[in-house]
């Protein structure tokens, strides 16, 4: 009898129909704080990483706040409604399947913007926030150019382009108008992100090219299609840079749910990087910049590759460390 | 019978103070930004009438008058005047060396505006005296008397204004007066139970409302609410013009006396006493404090492992350790790691700034009653007595009724802040004069 009940409970934990939870918790007086600790325990039992963080975010998302601390005190005292409880339940179940939190709540913050995140769009990492700062700090000709043209290769949710557009000095045009040349806009959340941030796609003061190279499921955009738009000031990219050998060691959240084409950079993680570098001299203006994010091993490999390929007319200006003091970004310039 | 000569005198008086009435009026209007059109472009007569009709200002004239009549201050002013004359003479001498010449010139330039104002005041006082004698003259015609009375009022107002202006110039400028502030509230851990936390929340909201009232921007940095209602600790950044000058006297311990809303004490109608602490720190701009990135250790979840695309985590908390001072700051308010880091850096800067301010203060050994708030100098500065419905500021022994209105952070609160400001100004002024004399004695 005892054994069967244990077996049954084990089964139930995996399946966990709604009523089991409802019974275990006295739903009438579940305040957000109690809910968070409940789900934290559930996640910990199932060895879900970031147990506390996940449960806090899911609960606060159901209550309409961004983080647990931002839940207004009035709400955090009261028990949550049945509807909210069900919603948290649904989201918690998804998290038990190792779905990334960002996909569950379908949004995440990048700098001060909240962006839509729907699978399989690549979830921007905090390191990339620094890439934006780097471009603005070191991209001199981008800031001095009257009509800046930026090419972002592999733009994912469009986070980097959006952040750059918001931070570039406003010229005569009204706030944030740009021409998005959607060469390959397949991920719907990207378009929505652009629209949500208040950009309209008709004016042509800023030209941002969202450019898709090397997509196996989709014919790659030929670089010739960029020609009519003229030469470009700055190329920014957070290309796929994970070594294929490392792919299998990724967390299930990443391996199962995120787009591998946004992650897998080939045997040395440089497939797309090399593609960009070969292409860059043809697309860039004189002294145009290239900013890339990469693996900590890449700056070294990149400078070696450049010396082996003198035909690529780029020189390495600097490598920049991220806030964890890892070699993360490279800045190149067309010579 | 009045002689024509005297009428002429009256006219010349008019002309005399018209000519310099306009200038102070202009200065006043610059502060009153809310009434457009009340400006210097009006014809003189218009300004004059409006000046008469303008409502009495909130600041208490009596106080400034009392300060003015203070013997020490008068001595100080006389000394300054003498020094100025002395300097003017010495500068005209050719025997003075060039280096000395420069230092003399500097001091001379410092004193010149003060002396100019003093002269204006003396002229105005002279006018006032003449008018006084005219009013006292019983042979005067009714109309003229009327006119003279009005004039006298104007002249007095002007003297008052000039004196205030002079006092403002005499006050030394605090280095941080114009900067933004970081305001922190922490509830006390006394026997008050939850009234401390509840009160902390009310006070925090009061400052928030005050910021709205003053049209400053109010940005919450950390907010740690209690499980049972109320607020443990919160910090906010307030930015606008000259905020530190206004809010610096808010730092200190605020005491609350009230009957709790729940529990045994509420049924027994027992009054509890609790405290909360406010810390006001000037917010530095980038230039003031330079932090070497090498001195920082930044802890994030991502510090371990490969980082970058290899890791996807929602843990965006940032913890910064400033190695030389051992100060630790944390921020996990935002979902964006970089924003968290920026906020943490801001808090770190504020804390480092606090250290510097404290150092400076202790160096100066200022024996002022009103002190910049900080934990080390915490003393009970104000009591909010809910049962008697009044707020008492212990430093200036000032009482306000209607606590609810006060906690809205609007006019009554602003009024108190203004009074504290005036009081502090006076204290500083007296201190300056004392310092001056003690220096010259040596």
UniProtKB/TrEMBL annotation, chain A:
Residues 36-105 form the Release factor glutamine methyltransferase N-terminal domain. InterPro entries: DNA_methylase_N6_adenine_CS, N5-glutamine_MTase, PrmC_N, SAM-dependent_MTases_sf. GO terms for cellular component: mitochondrion. Signal peptide: none annotated. It comes from the Eukaryota. It holds the Pfam family PrmC_N. One of its GO terms (biological process) is methylation. Coiled coil: none annotated. GO terms for molecular function: methyltransferase activity; nucleic acid binding. This is HemK methyltransferase family member 1. The gene is HEMK1.
UniProtKB/TrEMBL annotation, chain B:
PROSITE patterns: RF_PROK_I. SMART domains: PCRF. One of its GO terms (molecular function) is translation release factor activity. GO terms for biological process: mitochondrial translational termination. Pfam families: PCRF, RF-1. The keyword Protein biosynthesis applies. InterPro entries: PCRF (IPR005139), Pep_chain_release_fac_I (IPR000352), Pep_chain_release_fac_I_sf (IPR045853), Prokaryotic/Mito_RF (IPR050057). Residues 302-318 form the Prokaryotic-type class I peptide chain release factors domain. Residues 114-165 form a coiled coil. GO terms for cellular component: mitochondrion. Keywords: Coiled coil, Protein biosynthesis. It comes from the Eukaryota. Belongs to the prokaryotic/mitochondrial release factor family. PANTHER family: LD18447P (PTHR43804), PEPTIDE CHAIN RELEASE FACTOR 1, MITOCHONDRIAL (PTHR43804:SF1). This is Mitochondrial translation release factor 1. The lineage of its organism: Eukaryota, Metazoa, Chordata, Craniata, Vertebrata.
């Amino acid at each position: 009898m005892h054994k069967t009940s244990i077996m049954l409970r084990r089964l139930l934990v995996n399946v966990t129909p709604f009523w089991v939870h409802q019974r275990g918790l006295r739903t009438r007086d579940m305040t957000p704080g109690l809910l968070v600790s409940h789900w934290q325990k559930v996640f910990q039992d199932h060895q879900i990483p970031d147990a506390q963080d996940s449960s806090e975010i899911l609960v606060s998302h159901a209550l309409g706040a961004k983080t647990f601390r931002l839940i207004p005190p009035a709400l955090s005292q009261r028990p949550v409604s049945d509807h909210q409880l069900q919603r948290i339940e649904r989201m918690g179940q998804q998290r038990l399947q190792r779905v990334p939190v960002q996909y569950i709540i379908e949004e995440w913050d990048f700098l001060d913007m909240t962006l839509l995140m729907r699978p399989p769009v690549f979830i921007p990492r905090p390191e990339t926030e620094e890439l934006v700062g780097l471009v603005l700090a070191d991209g001199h000709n981008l800031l001095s150019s009257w009509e800046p043209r930026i090419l972002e290769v592999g733009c994912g949710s469009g986070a980097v382009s959006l952040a750059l557009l918001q931070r570039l000095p406003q010229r005569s045009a009204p706030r944030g108008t740009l021409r998005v040349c959607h060469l390959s806009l397949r991920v719907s959340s990207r378009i929505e992100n652009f629209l949500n941030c208040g950009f309209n796609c008709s004016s042509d003061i800023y030209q941002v090219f969202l450019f898709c190279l090397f997509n196996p499921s989709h014919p790659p955009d030929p670089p010739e299609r960029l020609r009519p738009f003229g030469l470009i000031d700055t190329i920014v990219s957070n290309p796929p840079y994970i070594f294929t050998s490392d792919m299998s060691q990724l967390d299930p959240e990443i391996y199962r749910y995120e787009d591998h084409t946004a992650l897998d950079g080939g045997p040395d993680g440089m497939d797309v990087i090399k593609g960009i570098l070969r292409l860059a001299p043809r697309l860039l203006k004189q002294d145009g910049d290239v900013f890339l994010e990469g693996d900590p091993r890449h700056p070294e490999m990149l400078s070696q590759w450049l010396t082996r390929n003198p035909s690529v007319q780029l020189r390495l200006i600097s490598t920049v460390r991220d806030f964890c003091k890892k070699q993360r970004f490279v800045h190149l310039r067309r010579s | 019978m009045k002689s024509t000569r005297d009428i002429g005198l009256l006219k010349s008086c008019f002309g005399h103070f018209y000519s310099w009435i306009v200038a102070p009026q202009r200065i006043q209007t610059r502060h009153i930004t809310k009434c457009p059109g009340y400006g210097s472009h009006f014809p003189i007569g218009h300004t004059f009438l409006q000046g008469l009709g303008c409502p009495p200002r909130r600041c208490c004239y009596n106080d400034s008058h009392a300060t003015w009549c203070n013997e020490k201050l008068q001595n100080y002013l006389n000394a300054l005047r003498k020094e100025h004359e002395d300097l003017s003479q010495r500068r005209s001498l050719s025997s003075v060396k060039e280096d000395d010449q420069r230092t003399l010139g500097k001091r001379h330039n410092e004193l010149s505006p003060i002396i100019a104002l003093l002269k204006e005041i003396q002229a105005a006082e002279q006018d006032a005296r003449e008018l006084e004698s005219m009013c006292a003259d019983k042979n005067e015609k009714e109309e003229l008397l009327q006119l003279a009375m009005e004039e006298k009022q104007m002249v007095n107002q002007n003297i008052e204004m000039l004196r205030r202006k002079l006092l403002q110039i005499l006050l030394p400028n605090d280095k941080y007066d114009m900067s933004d502030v970081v305001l922190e509230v922490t509830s006390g851990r006394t026997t008050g139970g939850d009234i401390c936390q509840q009160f902390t929340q009310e006070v925090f909201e009061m400052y928030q409302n005050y910021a709205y009232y003053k049209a400053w921007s109010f940005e919450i940095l950390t907010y740690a609410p209690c499980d049972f209602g109320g607020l443990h600790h919160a910090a906010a950044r307030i930015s606008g013009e000259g905020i530190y000058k206004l809010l610096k006297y808010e730092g200190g311990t605020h005491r609350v006396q009230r009957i709790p809303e729940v529990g045994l004490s509420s049924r027994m109608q027992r009054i509890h006493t609790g405290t909360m602490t406010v810390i006001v720190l000037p917010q530095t701009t980038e230039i003031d404090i330079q932090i070497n990135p090498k001195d920082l250790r930044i802890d994030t979840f991502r510090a371990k492992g490969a980082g970058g695309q290899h890791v996807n985590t929602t843990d965006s908390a940032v913890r910064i350790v400033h190695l030389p001072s051992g100060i630790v700051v944390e921020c996990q308010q935002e979902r964006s790691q970089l924003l968290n880091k920026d906020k943490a850096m801001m808090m770190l800067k504020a804390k480092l700034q606090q250290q510097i301010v404290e150092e400076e203060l202790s160096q100066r050994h200022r024996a002022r009653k009103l002190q910049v708030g900080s934990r080390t100098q915490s003393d009970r500065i104000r009591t909010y007595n809910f049962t008697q419905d009044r707020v008492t500021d212990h430093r200036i022994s000032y009482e306000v009724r209607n606590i609810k209105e006060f906690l809205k952070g609007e006019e009554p609160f602003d009024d108190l802040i203004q009074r504290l400001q005036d009081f502090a100004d006076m204290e500083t002024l007296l201190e300056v004069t004392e310092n001056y004399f003690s220096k010259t004695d040596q």
